[in-house]
Q: What sequence folds into this?
């Protein structure tokens, strides 16, 4: 770990002590933030696992219905039925702040009723399959929102952990070493000055003794 380059004087010592104090306060704040982020992350993980299991079960049922409808209707009629209707915006996207992390919020609008395709050339099961898609879609969007939040929280946890480690294992030890080094050099300089003063005092005393009648 490279040492800080500093001038061994009292002004620099005061600056380093103030800088260390700021670094220690910052370290504590970041450590508290990291702990809260981890609590939020772990709480969300449990919810996402439960939601993902539910969505996967729903999608399996939807895929089964869609596969049967496709087989009965034929590929051309099936694709034509899926393309029927007018495209609409389904999701409104906003953000909210969670522990200084901007988390996306997906608000699902009312889904349009399936239709616009020929009831003659498509099997009845297609209506049920598209209805099941309409039921599963909001849950799938909710899962996407929560998984994106987890991804962003994980990235923030990693950034915060790196900053905590940099302060704890790099900057603060460097400041401690620099403060200790300057303190030692200042003490050494004071001892040298004291020794010189004592020698000067002894020389003056000797001269006074020699000049005394």
A:
């Amino acid at each position: 770990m490279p040492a800080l380059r500093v001038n061994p004087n009292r002004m620099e010592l005061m600056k380093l002590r103030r800088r260390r104090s700021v670094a220690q306060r910052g370290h504590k704040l970041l450590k508290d933030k990291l702990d809260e982020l981890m609590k939020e992350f772990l709480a969300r993980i449990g919810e996402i696992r439960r939601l993902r299991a539910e969505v996967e079960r729903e999608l399996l049922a939807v895929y089964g219905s869609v596969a049967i409808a496709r087989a009965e209707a034929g590929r051309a009629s099936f694709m034509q039925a899926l393309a029927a209707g007018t495209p609409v915006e389904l999701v409104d996207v906003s953000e909210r702040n969670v522990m200084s992390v901007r988390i996306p919020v997906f608000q699902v609008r009312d889904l349009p009723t399936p239709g616009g395709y020929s009831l003659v050339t498509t099997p009845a099961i297609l209506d049920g399959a598209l209805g099941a898609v309409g039921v599963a879609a909001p849950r799938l969007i909710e899962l996407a929102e929560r998984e994106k939040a987890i991804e962003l929280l994980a990235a923030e946890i990693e950034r915060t952990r790196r900053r905590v480690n940099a302060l704890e294992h790099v900057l603060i030890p460097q400041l401690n070493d620099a403060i200790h080094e300057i303190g030692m050099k200042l003490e050494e300089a004071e001892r040298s000055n004291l020794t010189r003063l004592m020698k000067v005092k002894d020389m003056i005393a000797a001269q006074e003794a020699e000049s005394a009648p």
In short: The two ends are 65 Å apart (CA to CA). The beta strands are 91-98, 101-108.
